[in-house]
Each structure stands twice: as structure tokens, then as C-alpha cells.
Amino acid sequence: MAEHYFTEKPSSERSIKEITIDIRGIPFTFRTDRGVFSRGKIDRGTKLLIEAMNLDGVKKVLDLGCGYGPIGIVAARLSPKSEVVMVDVNERACELARENVRLNRLTNAKVLSGNGFEPVRGMRFDLILCNPPIRAGKSVVFPLITEAREFLEPRGCLLVVARTKQGSKSILKHMSEVFDVAREIEKGGGYRVMEGSASGGGLC
């Protein structure tokens, strides 16, 4: 059976690869490996989420399921006064994300290993960013969305990206059950970015 990128301890043979890409007009370098999500390139969903995220007024960011780190690392570079926390269950992904934080010379981002929100218990964020593990199914993805609300500041926002044909409508529906405001804010390349926030408007 093929090993999923949300495996805690990938057993696939190591094969480090380095990719360089311009994102929002800034060059970034990332080291990737087998056993992590989208190792060969930054996937279209991640790119769309990065393009859609608004960091104005944001002081604390969570990249939930960070993989090798592109979302959190771009957020940290674009908002140098923010504190960015990156979390993943995949220990190999976390190792790469830490290396990529150093490689991109960032001092305002840190990486924590663990499942879901466990590593950030007691913390609150202005912005939670998530490209969820759709292949893990709704039984994994929906609880992350539900739990996100308790980790947000009163005016905080959750941004989730998903394929249009792989559950974006059901995710948006679930977000509308969890948050006072749930809406689609961006679409393109077969993906949609959705925002959940409290009534009265969020920072997003």
C-alpha cells in the first residue's frame, strides 16, 4: 500500500530535491524529499492559497499541515513582524520545513511536530492557513475545521484550499456550520480558497 504524506514517520527512501520559485514577486528556495506532499513542485492549491492570503494586521499565523513549509515561509517573509507557527504530523516534513526556514533566512517562523492542533494547545492565532489532506477523508479534514475556531482570536480567520472536484463544496458547507461567516474568496486552476470567520468581519 502506498505511503501517504500524512504518515508520521515516512519509510520511503530519502531523495532530497531543491526547488527555486518566485512567489508574489519574491524568490524562495525549498528542499523537498520523498514521503512529503508535492515534493517535485509547489502544487496549484498551495499557490492559490498563498496568493489569496491577506496578512494586513496579522500578528500570529498558523500553517496547519505545513509540509516542507511553503505557505508558512512565504507568510513569514511577507509579514516579518508576525510570528508564524508551522505544524505537521509528518516528521520528515517538519525536518525539511525547519531546514527551509533557515535556508530562506527567516527568524519569525518556527516548526512544531505533532498531529493537528495538538502542538499549539493554548495558543490563539489571527490567521490559520490550511491545505488539508483531502485523501485522508472528511473524518480527518472536517474535525480540523471544527477545531480551528477555538484556536482563532475573536477577529481571526481560517483559510482553506481544496480542489473544486474533490470536496470544496462540502468543505464550504461545513465551514458555514462552524463559522458565522463562510465564503469563497478565490478560485483558479481547479481549486477554491474558502474563508471562515466570526461575525462582524475578520482580519482577512
Model description:
With 204 residues, this protein is of the alpha/beta class. It has a single domain (17-197), classed as Rossmann fold, CATH 3.40.50.150. Helices cover 26% and strands 31% of the residues. The chain contains 5 helices and 9 strands; from the N terminus they run E-E-H-E-H-E-H-E-E-H-E-H-E-E. It has helices spanning 44-52, 70-78, 91-103, 138-148, 168-178; strands at residues 17-23, 26-32, 60-64, 83-88, 109-113, 125-130, 152-163, 181-188, 191-197. The chain has a 7-stranded mixed β-sheet, with helices on both faces. It has a two-stranded antiparallel sheet with strand order 1-2. The protein is globular, with a radius of gyration of 16 Å.
CATH class: Alpha Beta
Spell out the helices and strands N to C. EEHEHEHEEHEHEE
User: How large, in whole angstroms, is the Cα Rg?
Assistant: 16 Å
Ranges where pLDDT stays below 50 over 5 or more residues in a row are: 1-5
Q: Report the biggest beta sheet as strand number plus sense, adding barrel if it closes.
A: 7 strands, mixed
Q: What global shape is seen?
A: globular
Distance between the termini: 40 Å
CATH topology: Rossmann fold
The share of residues in helices is 25-40%
Structural class: alpha/beta
* Strand portion: 25-35%
Number of strands: 9
Structural domains: how many = 1
Please list the strands of the largest sheet in the order they lie side by side: 5-4-3-6-7-9-8
Helical segment count: 5
The CATH level-2 architecture is identified as 3-Layer(aba) Sandwich
**What do we call the CATH homologous superfamily?**
Vaccinia Virus protein VP39
Average per-residue pLDDT, rounded, comes to 87
